[in-house]
Amino acid sequence: MFTAAPASIPVSCPEHIRRLGANTHTLKELVCCLEVLFAIIPRGFIYFPPPLLPSISSIPKSCIIFLTGRATMLLLYLLTVQVLLFAGAVELSAGSCAFEDSTCGYESDYTFLPWILNEEGHYISVDTSWGTQGEKAVLTSPELHSEEWSCIRLIYQIATASETSFDPTRLNLYLRLQGESFDHLLWSAKEPSDSWLIASLDLRNTTKKYKIVLEGVLGQDNSASIAVFEIKITSGYCIECDFEENHLCGFMNQWNPNVNWFVGGGNIRNSQSIFPRDHTLNSELGHYMYVDSIYVKHFQEVAQLVSPKTTTPMSGCLSFYYQLQQESSIVFTLYMRDINGFYEEIWKRDNTMNTDWSLAEVDFDAPYPMEVIFEVAFNSAKGGYVALDDISFSPDYCSNQTGFSFNPAEASCNFEEDLCNFYQDHKDGPGWSRVKVKPNAYRTGDHTTGLGYYLLANTKFTSQPGYIGRLYGPSMPGNLQYCLRFYYAVYGFFKMSDTLAVYIFEENHVVQEKIWSVLESPKGVWTQAEITFKKPMPCKVVFLSWCKSFWDCGLVALDDISVSLGSCQTTEMWSSFPGECTFEKDECAFTQERRNRSSWHRRRGQTPTSYTGPKGDHTTGVGYYMYIEASNMIYGQKARLTSRSLRGISGKQCLTFFYHMHGAGTGLLNVYVKKEGDSEETLLWRRRGEQSITWLRGLIEYECDKYHKIIIEAVRGVSIRSDIAIDDILFQAGPCNEMGEITQHSSGDSDDLNEIEY
């Protein structure tokens, strides 16, 4: 069994202890030495984590002598420190737990593996001695309520025998809101470590009661463990810090061989000390962060203090207190850094000297995950020092500005009502047409619902050599990172290259830059494209379709354009719904009573039998879906996909999914609800026979105030051309907003087959 070391988060000793002789051992000095000891001995062997301890030279000589002393003395001091820690302990806030002698109201869900409270190490853990690959342990907090913005800090460790694994052991943290059947994933970690790590998660204010859910999932490793040392929930923002706690609010020193940030204060003041009282308590016992030039060896040596990454969009005023003493030039700069490593300077001081604590305020916008970096650059070893304390945040801007006004929805459109904020320049030709295809057995409908509108260029009515259709999006502010997603389908071209391209039009420079173009894609399949981009100036997105010649001209379709802030990788996690299953990774929380050739199968691409089944999935066009293979079944045979047990809520719930029923012999698709305690299932929805060659959206509105399961049943039809597929299942609380727009279709074989509405 792998266990995590019962160590505190590493901190550096106060500056004055580095200068003490070997024979001076005040109690506070020994406490500092023990902190160093715990920092460098995770899991029983000496180890110096570079980001946390700058070098072995920073360990005081007195500490080294003390730490190499007799083991009995070490135990004596350990006991003394432990008594002091208990004596000075403060009452933890609701939802917080140090797991000293209890789980503080946190309970294991005994449907799964148990979390074990380790009384000696003061942490809870789950490991491979209790379970096998794929099994999980679930820990649920007591019911919590806070209408203020909160910060969750989690001190944890994942320990494994191997560094990499195809299916790694992971720790997930969910938010369970009252009145919702599914939990919201807030955070996930899978990287193993040899020491305790800290995660900081912002929790937006809500009027609903909620619970915190910790889920440990065992991976492929033969020997692995997940341990949680502490959970702490405080009011305020995770980016705020007064540096009074030893975890430093998750702020990390970016290790440099010569210049680093240290913890200052927390000791009886030395009359010769050049370092100040802290700002929080105005006391020698208070703490702050500082960096000095004593070890500077090169020109422009840089020290960086990095904040926890923001985990939810936030904007307002970031403030902090600082002191700057300089004998030669010091540059003190504040940056924002996104997940791609791009820096943006938001504040700077390089020519003033502050011997007292000074307040700095700066407007701060983090619409996507950002880190704040406090950077100090020295020009010489006699450069002086910079001290930092009391970082705070307010949702009100420091200046009189009203805040960040751009709404990404303004640059998004599904074309169901009109062109939204998109427009065309008709100088090159008729351009893009907004069309609608009724359900049929030959032509694909729109991507949004299968029954709605999309844009079509290069139609048979307008095909001509050199035809160009341009679609312009609205203006978007510069210096922000965007994720552009859209769906396209291409028909009739011999060569697909450049049949559809995306350009960025920078208004101030009248410059167009191509950022994407079609290379190859399945013909006639709605395929997703996603592009991350950032421009310094205001810009527009331009979609361009080009018909190169009369002999190589076809149709280009466009639908469901969406813009979000941040990289596409990040926004995918932030925008994902808790009750959603796209089948891209697995079958989610759905199960089957039996698995054989006549069951539901997970597949990508076209189904084996011709003239039935989809050509691609609904999510991306090249991903996975679930389907029944009719050639492996007999007439009337059933395949059933059952959800996990869902929590009942008062009020209506909406189940959305996409289904594909194409083929002359298509049978039945049924959706049932099975309530806890009931012997019978209740039919919620049914479709019979061939519906369309395209994916259609299904909406089901139902009510259930007790635990229940949803069952999706496919029944094989009269011939092998009766494959049935499903994809993109989504459970949501509340009524289905578009129920009134849904019409039922029993067959695609009708008089208006292939009809296009303009």
Automatic annotation (TrEMBL):
Residues 95-240, 239-400, 411-570, 579-738 form the MAM domain. Transmembrane segments: none annotated. Gene3D superfamilies: 2.60.120.200. One of its GO terms (cellular component) is membrane. InterPro entries: ConA-like_dom_sf, MAM_dom, MAM_domain-containing. Pfam families: MAM. This is MAM domain-containing protein. It comes from Gopherus agassizii. The lineage of its organism: Eukaryota, Metazoa, Chordata, Craniata, Vertebrata.
